[in-house]
Amino acid sequence: MKKILSSLLILCMALSVTAASAGGAAPRFRFESTVIVSFQGREATARVQFINPNGVGHDVEAELRDENGYVLATRTFTNNKVKSVTFTFPDDWIGAKYLSVWADGEKVSEEDLFFAVDDINNKAIRQVGVSTQRMSITLDCGYGDTYTDRILDLLDELGIKVTFFVTGLWAENFPEHMKDIISRGHEIGNHSYYHPHLTEESFERVLREIVNTSDLVEEITGQRPVLFRPPYGDTDHLIRAISRAAGCEHIIWTVDSHDWDESYDAAKIERRVTNTVEPGYIILFHNAGKHTLEVLGEVIPYYQSLGYELVPVSTLLSEGEYTVNADGLLEFVQD
């Protein structure tokens, strides 16, 4: 009896394998990476694996599509070896694209592939070609908060609005400051989550650093950042593409105050940020700088005496469509 049951069990297992190999399972695909960067009009490659060819039991013709159903490429898969699918991005595509694998009219990839698409000619913004006497003061918030309340009070007293670039970790530790910054009419930009050197990180890590910070800022304040400043100013064309695809324009600075440098006293910092002043300048300070509060109290009235209106960075960008040249100068497109 036991021999009969054993034989039946083996037979059932064999029939099950035979049925699966005859096409009983739906095909499943996986992308080797979850984030890829490319540029308008350029060739790009996605690495794709057919996970269960034995279960499907036949070759599968699969399509690589974007979120709107546009077919970028078609490839026949016969086994589970990772294959390269190469295609060219259209000239008018920019920002975030979500790609997936389809077969027989069904989506068969386990997870979408995030493609960051950019115009490679647009550089990081260092200065804005505004048509008015405007400039911006920015304060990076990555570590302490000793002077934050007093800086906010000073900005109120002098009647100006600025952009605070915050890390996710700083936002996590000081949510009340985040709310206070917004309630006083200032702008919050994204400064990554943990302040790493992004050019040394994977695309997946870069995207997480930006998106997780924006998610947290929005959760705390109700406003999602539209600007991103890479830690240390460490960036390249790939990081720029990812930040823009994540919804944040890429901002560096015109003048670094060096308020973070222990060898700089207040007078030396002040000289750096007043030596040359032009419309559209973006000045870098830090909320935790030892001399920042003192210097701001001197230089803001000086800028105002020259006729400058001090505004958040987004206000500088608000004159219309623009491009950014090789020197980081933002130039508005003339009608």
What does this structure look like?
Helix content is 32%, strand content 27%. With 335 residues, it is an alpha/beta fold. The protein folds into two domains: 26-118, Macroglobulin (MG2) domain (Immunoglobulin-like, Sandwich); 127-332, Glycoside hydrolase/deacetylase (TIM Barrel, Alpha-Beta Barrel). The strands form five sheets. Strands 2, 4, 5, 7, 8 and 9 form a six-stranded mixed β-sheet that branches. Strands 11, 12, 13, 16, 17 and 18 form a six-stranded parallel β-sheet that branches. A three-stranded antiparallel β-sheet has the order 1-3-6, with no helix packed on it. Strand 4 and strand 5 (71-77) form a beta hairpin. Helix 3 runs parallel beside helix 9, helix 6 (203-221) packs parallel to helix 7 and helix 8 runs parallel beside helix 9. The radius of gyration is 27 Å and the shape is elongated.
Task: Offer a quick outline of the entry.
The protein contains 10 helices and 20 strands. It has 335 residues and is an alpha/beta fold. It is elongated and about 75 Å long.
SSE layout and pairings?
Layout lengths: L1 H23 L4 E3 L3 E5 L3 E8 L2 H4 L3 E6 L5 E7 L5 E6 L6 E9 L2 E2 L5 E6 L8 E2 L5 E8 L6 H11 L4 E4 L1 H6 L1 H9 L3 E4 L12 H19 L5 E2 L8 H9 L3 E2 L4 E2 L9 H9 L7 E5 L5 H14 L3 E2 L2 H4 L5 E3 L4 E4 L3
Parallel strand pairs: 2-9, 10-20, 11-12, 11-17, 11-18, 12-13, 14-15, 16-17
Antiparallel strand pairs: 1-3, 3-6, 4-5, 4-7, 7-8, 7-9, 19-20
